[in-house]
Amino acid sequence: MPSPRLRRVAVLVLEGAKPLDVGIPAQVFTTRASMPYEVRVCGAAPGLVTGGDGLSYHVAHGLSALAWADVVFLPGYRTPDRDDPPRAVVEALSGAHERGARLAAISTGAFALAATGLLDGRRATTHWHYTRALARRHPRVRVDENVLFVDEGSVLTSAGAASGIDLCLHILRGDLGVAASNHAARRLVAAPYRSGGQAQYVPRSVPEPLGERFAATREWALSRLGEPLTLEAMARHAAVSARTLSRRFVEDTGYTPMQWVLRARIDMARELLERSERGVEQIAVDVGLGTGANLRLHFQHILGTTPSEYRRTFSRGE
After folding, report:
1. What are 269-282's pLDDT values in tens digits?
2. For residue 168, is it left (φ>0), alpha (ψ between -120 and 50) or beta?
3. N or C: fewer beta carbons within 10 Å in the chain?
4. In a 3-state reduction of DSSP, which class is residue 257?
């Protein structure tokens, strides 16, 4: 049988492009045995593109790469609140979207995406420093400044550079499953999952060592998902009150402690469905959800599908 076609990723480098924003999708999706993607870095035209922070880029492809791609990334760029991208860029982005490509903006790349009108009436985010400017320049966009990324289906936006990693892992998780996303996160030495609803910028009123303590508690909980876990037990591990733990969990992850545990259990179930032959009842016990009925209920609520359908989509050899 012929091998499946590689998924096509274009990274569009605009004038003033920020180096981290360009590098993140280019590195995450670089073709390798574990990553069935082909990446093309492009610009308004092939050749030299002046970037931000003292760097420039020599891109091999022009806007034809957008007609080729399944996913187009728009990295952030300098002074996005002053001028829209060239008309040819805006038209090429609109054409790619009309053809069925997903458009994913990192940081201030949201301004280029908004210039197409495709964000009108939709939720979107950008770097917290520019959220008000985005709302002023594109008042029809429902700007949310308190999230790491927003997935509106065919158009996706994210906050600063680090949340670009979260967005890439989110796309990977949807394309290839949680095992592939976790593998990529380990390769990047990045958190395998941060909620899109997590706050971009939370002023810290507690010492940093306390943040480290909560990170240790999350690791402790992840190693015990198959066991009973309660808010009180997690608070005891962190040596704080249940109220303090709940407040900080929402700040750090976007979820209450028990919501976070439930999603961690569902992610563990996803990986077992992808990588093992265990039945749904056994997986439910292994991840701490007790029964197959309970697993199916939460799986459907969080992912909108059943464990069996998920396994057929993401199991090995599919």
Report:
1. 998 998 899 999 99
2. alpha
3. N
4. helix
